[in-house]
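In response to reviewer comment 3 from the previous cycle, which asked for concrete evidence that the modeling workflow produces usable outputs, we include below a single protein chain processed end to end. The sequence was submitted unchanged, and the resulting C-alpha cells are shown without manual editing.
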Amino acid sequence: MAETIEKGSISINTENIFPIIKKFLYSDHEIFLRELVSNAVDATQKLRKLSSLGEFTGELGELRIEVSFDKKKKTITVSDRGIGMTGEEIKKYINQIAFSGATEFIEKFKDKADAKDIIGKFGLGFYSAFMVSDHVELVSRSYKASEKEAARWSCDGSTEFELEATAKTDRGTDVILHVNKDSEEFLDEWRLKGILEKYCKFLPVEIKFGTKEDREEDGVDKDGKPQYKTVTKDRIINNTQPLWTKAPAELKDEDYLKFYKELYPFAEDPLFWIHLNVDYPFNLTGVLYFPKVKNDFELNKNKIQLYSRQVFITDEVKDVVPDFLMLLHGVLDSPDIPLNVSRSYLQSDSNVKKISQHITKKVADKLAEMFKKDRADFEKKWDDISIFVKYGMISDEKFYDKAKEFALVKNTLKKYYTLDEYKEYTKDLQTDKEKQQIFLYATDTGKQHAFIETANQKAYDVIIMDGVLDSHFINTLEQKLDKVQFRRVDSDTIDKLIVKDEKVESVLSAADQEKLKAIFEKAINNSNMTLSIDSLAPDHLPVTITMSEWSRRMKDMAKTGGGGMYGFMGSMPDQYAVSVNGNHKIAQRVLQSPDEEQQVKLAKQTYDLALLSQGMLTGADLTNFIKRSVDLVS
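The workflow returned the following C-alpha cells.
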C-alpha cells in the first residue's frame, strides 16, 4: 500500500446515506456501543479460531477489548487485539461490502415509514458509529502485517473517505469516534458503564473500561486483626463464561441461585429452574427460572433476557417465549433467532415458532418429571406454580395435553388431587340425576364458610378456586372434561347445585307457602332479589342468598379483563336469588307471629342475617339490624 494518503468516494448511488441509516436503523443511539464492541469480539474470536487451526502461530497475548473516552478531545475509542485488517481489507469490508449492503437497504426501504421488519443482512453495524460522531477513524493492523503496514481510515459521514498507511505496534483495530455536539451525553463514565453493563455483561471476551478501587488484605496488626489497603484494578465489565454456557452436569444448585442473584439482585430465591441446551434443529441455550408470583403478575413480565452469542438483544421476548411463560425469569441465547438490521426487533419465522414450541415442551417435561419424582414436594410448590400451569392449559392445546397429568386441584381440607383422581374421588356422591358430575368450588373460604359447611354435611367435597385465572381455567376444564360441571358453592342451595332424584317434602301447605312468600317480599322490597320458598332439610339455613353460577362467571370474567358481553355484565347491577327454607322452624315461627308487623319484622331479621353472612349488610341497614337484634333479645 502506498505511503501517501488515498482519497476516494464510496461507490453508492445516494449522497444521503447516513441520515437514512440513522432514521431507519437505530431509534436508540446507545446501540452504537453494542455494535462496535460486538465487532471487536468477532475480530478477537476469529483470531482465536485461526490460532486453534494453526493458521496463526504468533503469541495471542492478552485478548481483551478496551473501551475508553476522552472528555477534552470528545472521543470514544473501542480497541481490540483481534484479527485486524490491511488497507485493502478496509477498502473491501468497510467501503465496498458494507456500503453495497447500504445501497440495497436504501433501494428497498427509502419509501417506507417503518423499517422494523428488515432482515439483518446488510452489515451496517459499524456505521452506527456515525449516529453519535462528526467523523470516525479506524486504525488497524492485520495479524499478518508488520508495524509499518498498519492502515488508518477516516470518514466524516459523507461518501468521501481517506485511507493511509500508518504505524501501529499492536495487532488489532482501534475505532475512534469524534463525538458530535448532540451526543456529548456519551462522554460520561457512568453513562458508558451503564450501556456496557446492559449489552455486554456476558460477552465471551474480557472488556476493560477504566479502573476501580478495591480493598485487599495487607497483613495483620499486632493484635492479629487483618489490615487492608486500597488498590487500583482494571474494571472488567463482563463475565465471559456465564452460567448458561456451561454444561448442566458441571453445575450445582448454588451456582444457579448465585447466577439468579446476579441477574435479579433483590428478588426472592426462585422455586426451581430449567437449563436449556439444544443444538438441533436450532441452537438454543439458556436458563429459565420459576419465580414466586404475586397476584399482580402483570407487573412482572419482561424479566427474560434474550441474547445472541452472549450479546444482549432485548427483554421483550413475546415471540420467542409462549405468553403463559412470560412470567418466568432468566436468559435465552440463540444465534438462530432472526433479528432486524439493528438487532432491536425479533422477526417472525418458522425458527422462532419452533423455539417457542420447544420451550413449552421442555417446561412441561420438567414439571412432569418433578411430579413423578417427588409428589409431596411438587404439592408444596403447587400454589406458587399453578398460575403458570393454568395459564398454559388455557392458552396452549399441546401444553394442556401434557399438563392434565400433573395439574392439581386443592380442596378445603388442603388435600391435592390430579384431575383424574378428583373425578374418581367425587363420582359416586357428586353425580346428579342428569349423570353430570358436579365439582363444587369456593373462591373465598372465609366468606363462603357457611355454604362449605352445608356441602360438607352432605359429604360433598369443595375445591378452592381463588386464583386470578381460575374463572377462565374453570371454563377450559368444563370444555375438556367429559360430563363435568363446576358450580360455585354459594351459587344456589346445595340441593339445587347437585340435584338428586330424592326430594324433601314440604311441611307447609300451598296456601302457607304463598303467605310466607308475601311476608318475605314485603320485608325484602328489593327488585334485585328473586324470592322462592323451597323445601329443604330442616337443619339447612332458614334463608340463603345466592348469585347464579352464570352471573358469577360473567362478573369474574369482567374482573379479569374479559371484554364484550363480560364487560357489559360487569357494569350491570347484581341479581340475587333468595331461597327461604319453608321447612325451617323460623319459617313456621314467622307464620305463627300474632300480627303482620311482627311477621315482617321477623322475616326482615332473618333476611338481614343472611345478608350479614355474605358481607352484604352495610350502612343504615346494618345499624337497623343491630337495633332490631337488641329489641328481639330484650
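Residues 243-363 form a domain with the Ribosomal Protein S5; domain 2 fold (CATH 3.30.230.80). We consider this sufficient to address the reviewer's concern, and the full set will be provided in the supplementary archive.
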